[in-house]
Amino acid sequence: MKLGFKLIAEAYGPLEIVEQAVRAEAAGFDFVEVSDHFHPWVSEHEHSGFAFSMLAAIAARTTQLELATGVTCPFIRYHPAVVAQMAATTAILSGGRFTLGVGAGERLNEHVVGAGWPAVATRHEMLREALEIIRLLWAGGYQSYSGKHLQLEDARVFDLPDVLPQIAVAAGGPSAARIAGELGDALFVTEPKGELITAYEKAGGSGPKYAEVPLAWAPSADDAAESARRLFRFGLTGWKVQAELPNPVNFDAATTLVTADHLREQFACGPDVDRHVEVARQFAEAGYDHLALINAGPDMDGFFGFFTDELGPALRSAVPASSSSR
């Protein structure tokens, strides 16, 4: 079992994100993962730094911490050839500590280049083609590709790491989980659904299984729940909504009636270590072995201290170990 920390790039500026990663390593986390967005989700979010610049800075400031995107859409805002190059360079700069997390994206981030927003079935076809292109370029040499949606013409990634990054594919349903099993090295989810692991493994997947665990630490459970409402109420809309709305103002409108009590149903809120372990255990018992903890609370310094002194040791002793690891 590996424990990671979610870097919330929509809620904190790029310099603070890098500092949080440094603190996460010092606090005893095994890895960090950072969202790769162009826009933030809601109006309370006031940031959205470029993920790969932040990862490069984190790589230079840390020594053991593993890094990941959580996640990159590799086929609209970016061409997969550019993603192949970015990921290869990040792997080199981090000394092989980087995992490329990919997914089918959200309109929130991809519509900005004016290329339209395809239906989900089309996006899954595009994701497959993007992964094929990335793998092709990582094989070395000049490569071309002609797909239904994506093209590559006589391209080469010149700087490749000695060990290629693993690719973790995000899945909210069985179709994406099958893509993860067929074309990825790992699975990435946000819900403790064992059926996604089943679909992933039936499609040939055998690698790490990443999951984001929703927590909010504060000395007061009420303060923690209110902070979670401010920062993560968009998460209660579900992926069918999250993938389709174009801007923060739309998510503000969609979440007008979400209360702090609604967030308590999904997030472990407050200082009770047993409640945090209870929420994390759901993911571990479902079979996930790389748990990225979200802190939606208002005090990051307090959370890191809580993790070092209480939560980290409690999780490592309470959640079942897994044979899967990098």
Automatic annotation (TrEMBL):
Transmembrane segments: none
Single GO molecular function: oxidoreductase activity, acting on paired donors, with incorporation or reduction of molecular oxygen
EC class (word): oxidoreductase
Keyword Transport applies: no
Protein name: TIGR03557 family F420-dependent LLM class oxidoreductase
Source species of the chain: Kribbella albertanoniae
UniProt-listed InterPro entries: F420-G6PD/mer, F420_G6P_DH-rel, Luciferase-like_dom, Luciferase-like_sf
Pfam families the UniProt entry points to: Bac_luciferase (PF00296)
